[in-house]
Structures are given as structure tokens and as C-alpha cells.
Design brief:
353 residues, alpha+beta, Arc Repressor Mutant, subunit A, 2 domains, two-stranded antiparallel ribbon, 16 helices, 7 strands, 9% strand
Length: 353
């Protein structure tokens, strides 16, 4: 089986788009100039091929003439845009707990840059690296990864936390002023790895919006899906991960999944058949399970649409009716919630079912 395809979660691009908006740049026009449909890279929780991500990022740096694009992307990171993973982190008691959840569940939403932490001498050393089969990347990727991590620390806690040191494997740029402004610590280049080092005590910093009850529920959901993914046969496992990353794509097909896995449709069908799985049934099962779970727990259509990555509540309603033959309201009436959902929806429209 070929290596797992490398994809990037669209929320990472949302950081770029927010940065563009701050510069009054027309994002849609920029994307169209690259031959990319704007809607194809804006759906929450969508994942795109790494080649598409790198093209957008590198061209964006040239377009706005910003040699520090990755650093500036990181400044627009928001935990709430990371779907379930972000909600888990926001509801952790401490920053250390949020780090632990991020490490445990990060592969649900992306696999381009991973992190490995070592604890020694009262310090936490976090190395950022890519899979062996990752394509060549500009420094914007690691700039963004570390800048985003630092921004998340500050956003989650409301405390102006700084690393002890940040290192990059690439040569020192002409100007390091932006690195010093953002990280507020020594930044070193031409090192063996891309990393940041933190004081051990930083893990005890309280998270502002900690809610143990919500954390437990979000983590249970993540565990359930990880358990399902790990319990399936190898090819079903790989397909399930791609489906989870593309839940908002109503036209998701075995052809799209096969292309992302770099195999033919016939080959993928044969592999799934050997494991007793039908793609259409697998897709329906995953989508229905999550939608019904949230309705039973009392979440509003607005909240569910956001968590599942639908652009509008009306789109979710239509999809749900197509899946089950009944509306979300009818399903809720058949399955009264025992505990009302308490997530605060980030959307402006707060309509309930």
C-alpha cells in the first residue's frame, strides 16, 4: 500500500485568508488567479492535497511580497476553527493537558507537520517534522507551525507566554525582526531541527475556558472514532480517515478518495470488498452516526452544522433528511436529549431546530 496521502486541513488556510483580509486583499481573486475555485478551499474541516496547499502558500507570499508569510499566518490562529480538536483544547484545565490532547488527536485533522516532545532538565523540547514522503517545502510551513503553536498558547490561556528558544533548520534570513517580535525569545537558524523549547512550568498555566464536562464529551467522541479507525482493516482504516477529513463534501465519492490515496477506483473497490466494506455504506454510516449523536445530546442545528463543517444549517437539514428520511426536528422528538448541548456557536445566526 502506498504511504498515507499528505493533506492539509483547510482551517490552516483560513489563517492565511484572515491575514489577507487584514491587508484588504481579495482572497477569491487571488485563488482564481491560481486556477483554484475559492469554494473548494473554504469548507470547514475540508482537507486538501499538500501540493495545493504549498502552491497557495508560496504564491501568497509572492503576491503580498511578504518574506515572513508563515509567521504572520500563525498570528491568526484560532483554536475554535480546529473542530473537535480545538474544542477539546479550549476545554482543558491546563495548557499541559491541551498539549497532550493535541498530540493524541492531531492526526484526525492533518498529517503534514507532526510534533515530538521531550521532557528534560526542567524544559519541554518540541521538534516539528514532516513524514519521509513529504514534498520539498518553503520555510513558510515551519514558520507557520511554530508561530501557530505560540499563538495558541497565548490564546488558550490569555497569558502572554513565550518560548525559551526557537530553532529553524534553514539559513538565517536577511532580517530576523519579525521572528523576534512574534516569539520574544532567542531564535536560532541553521540548526539540526525546527523546534521550540518551553519552560516546564508553562504546562500548569490554566486554560481560560476550561469545562471538564464538555472536554469529556468531546474526547469521548474523538476516542470513539479513533477506536473505529484503528479497529478496521487497513484499507477501511485509511478510507475512514479521509472521510472524516472531508465530512462536509456532500459529493464525496470513491473516485475522490481513490485519487487522494493514489490508487485506481477499481483497486480501492477490490480492497474494500476484501474487507467486507462498501464505500457508500461506510460514508453514510460515519455521517449519520455523528449527526445523530449531536442531536441526541441536544445541540442545535447551527451548532451541528458548524461541528460537521456544513456551510449553513439549511445544508445540514437537507443532508440529514436525505440520509434518514426525516428532519432533524423529527429525529429530536423521537430521541429527547438527556443533556442540553452547551457549546456556544461561533456563527452569527443562532437559530435552533
Amino acid at each position: 500500500m502506498p504511504p498515507e496521502p499528505i493533506t492539509v486541513s483547510v482551517p490552516v488556510l483560513s489563517q492565511l485568508f484572515l491575514y489577507f483580509h487584514s491587508l484588504n486583499v481579495d482572497v477569491d481573486s487571488f485563488l482564481r488567479s491560481l486556477g483554484i475555485d475559492p469554494q473548494s478551499v473554504k469548507a470547514p474541516d475540508e482537507r486538501i492535497p499538500v501540493e495545493t496547499y504549498l502552491l497557495i502558500q508560496d504564491e501568497a507570499a509572492r503576491f503580498v511580497r511578504d518574506p515572513h508569510l508563515g509567521l504572520h499566518m500563525g498570528e491568526f490562529a484560532e483554536a475554535g476553527s480546529w473542530s473537535i480538536l480545538g474544542y477539546m483544547m479550549m476545554n482543558c484545565k491546563t495548557l499541559g493537558e491541551a498539549f497532550e490532547k493535541a498530540g493524541r488527536y492531531s492526526r484526525i485533522i492533518g498529517n503534514l507537520i507532526e510534533a515530538r516532545a521531550d521532557l528534560k532538565f526542567g524544559k519541554i523540547h518540541i521538534e516539528f517534522f514532516t513524514p519521509p514522503h513529504a514534498p520539498a517545502m518553503s520555510r513558510h510551513c515551519f514558520d507557520s507551525a511554530i508561530s501557530t503553536s505560540v499563538q495558541m498558547m497565548r490564546t488558550l490561556t490569555g497569558v502572554p507566554l513565550d518560548p525559551l528558544e526557537v530553532t529553524f533548520a534553514y539559513p538565517k534570513p536577511e532580517s530576523t525582526a519579525e521572528y523576534e517580535r512574534i516569539f520574544r525569545c532567542p531564535v536560532r537558524f541553521d540548526r539540526r531541527e525546527n523546534s521550540m523549547t518551553l519552560d516546564w512550568n508553562i504546562i500548569n498555566t490554566p486554560v481560560r475556558m476550561a469545562n471538564p464536562a464538555l472536554l469529556e464529551r468531546f474526547e469521548q467522541y474523538a476516542q470513539d472514532f479513533l477506536s473505529q479507525m484503528e479497529g478496521r482493516d487497513e484499507h477501511t482504516h485509511a478510507v475512514t480517515k479521509i472521510i472524516l477529513a472531508r465530512l462536509d463534501d456532500e459529493s464525496l465519492s470513491i473516485g475522490k478518495v481513490a485519487k487522494e490515496m493514489s490508487v485506481s477506483v477499481r483497486t480501492l473497490q477490490n480492497r474494500l470488498d476484501a474487507e467486507g466494506v462498501v464505500f457508500s455504506e461506510l460514508l453514510r454510516e460515519i455521517r449519520e452516526q455523528l449527526a445523530k449523536k449531536y442531536i441526541r445530546e441536544g445541540y442545535s442545528v447551527e451548532q451541528i452544522a458548524y461541528l460537521l463543517g456544513f456551510s449553513e444549517p439549511s445544508v445540514f437539514r437537507k443532508a440529514f433528511k436525505r440520509w434518514l428520511g426525516i428532519t432533524p426536528r423529527e429525529y429530536r422528538e423521537m430521541h429527547p436529549a438527556s443533556v442540553a448541548g452547551t457549546i456556544q456557536s461561533p456563527r452569527r445566526d443562532s437559530r435552533d431546530i
